[in-house]
């Protein structure tokens, strides 16, 4: 299926996850990274491939870029010029439409798909969703998505634009809400240890989310907020939601507060409301 693969950024967490999976599936994998060392790796710039990297790109069945967006955009032309007919170009960017536009302009005949594992690479892949934003479909795209499914990933196909709009809600709005919650605790002078001692399940869950985000790499969360063209609208929507809540309470209008709940139930829909509420109840019932 994929005998020869090049993974640019293969020393990073996401690139390493895919490189290891591909190697375990029988592929010969070359990791290209300026900081790469050791066997199966070459220290090189994917935007200006040296002789060894160029040979590997020319013979690859799959070239996967697990690099920042600016690097991926600059790499599209030199990489696709070297790829053979029928080979697959893939990326793991958190924002898809930019690289999709570049691929359509620079390499319209190259099969391409953007992958976004919707979980931290430190977590196991089986059972977790992997968004697949198809740019140019073809047999190699189908083979890669089938391989990810064989690994146990839950492949969810989308378009680059749909992907970016969805992740603005899933990631940008979510992270903004969690970060704002943490900043509010700081402004309130909260004693987190004291909060934990009596925290009801919703508060405890938010504290856990805040701790997970705060212990992560800021650059990852910066990319979510800064690179997605729909992230600003998502943050503004979160802010407007707080303002609407504040107006309902400040105006001493319980009917307006109740109307907000009616709106929330409508947004969720009956089936999602029931299933998600049950899932939350199950989660809260587990002892910590």
TrEMBL record:
Record the organism: Streptomyces xanthii
GO function term, MF aspect, one: prephenate dehydrogenase (NADP+) activity
Q: What is this protein called?
A: Prephenate dehydrogenase/arogenate dehydrogenase family protein
UniProt-listed InterPro entries = 6-PGluconate_DH-like_C_sf, NAD(P)-bd_dom_sf, PDH_C, PDH_N, Preph/Arog_dehydrog, Prephen_DH
Instruction: Cite the Prephenate/arogenate dehydrogenase domain residue spans from the record.
Output: 2-279
Q: Which family does it belong to?
A: Belongs to the prephenate/arogenate dehydrogenase family.
- Regions crossing the membrane: none
Pfam name, any one: PDH_N
**UniProt-listed GO biological process terms:** tyrosine biosynthetic process
N-terminal signal peptide: none
Q: Which UniProt keywords apply?
A: Oxidoreductase, Plasmid
């Amino acid at each position: 299926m994929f005998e020869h693969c090049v993974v640019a950024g293969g020393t990073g967490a996401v690139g390493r996850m895919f490189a290891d999976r591909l190697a375990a599936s029988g592929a010969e994998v070359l990791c290209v990274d300026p900081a790469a060392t050791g066997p199966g790796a070459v220290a090189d710039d994917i935007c200006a491939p040296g002789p060894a990297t160029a040979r590997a790109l020319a013979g690859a069945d799959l070239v996967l870029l697990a690099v920042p967006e600016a690097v991926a955009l600059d790499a599209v032309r030199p990489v696709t010029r070297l790829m053979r007919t029928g080979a697959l170009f893939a990326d793991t960017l958190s924002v898809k439409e930019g690289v999709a536009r570049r691929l359509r302009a620079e390499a319209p005949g190259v099969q391409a798909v953007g992958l976004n594992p919707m979980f931290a690479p430190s977590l196991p892949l089986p059972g977790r969703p992997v968004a697949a934003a198809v740019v140019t479909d073809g047999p190699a795209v189908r083979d890669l998505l089938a391989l990810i499914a064989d690994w146990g990933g839950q492949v969810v196909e989308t378009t680059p634009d749909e992907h970016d709009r969805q992740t603005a809600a899933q990631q940008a709005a979510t992270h903004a809400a969690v970060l704002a919650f943490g900043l509010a605790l700081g402004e309130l002078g909260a004693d987190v240890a004291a909060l934990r001692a009596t925290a009801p399940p919703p508060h405890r869950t938010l504290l856990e989310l805040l701790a997970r985000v705060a212990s992560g790499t800021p650059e990852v969360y910066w990319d979510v907020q800064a690179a997605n063209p729909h992230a600003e609208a998502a943050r503004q929507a979160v802010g407007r939601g707080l303002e609407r809540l504040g107006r309902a309470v400040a105006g001493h209008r319980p009917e307006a507060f109740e109307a907000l709940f009616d709106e929330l139930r409508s947004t969720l829909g009956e089936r999602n409301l029931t299933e998600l509420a049950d899932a939350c109840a199950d989660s809260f019932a587990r002892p910590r």
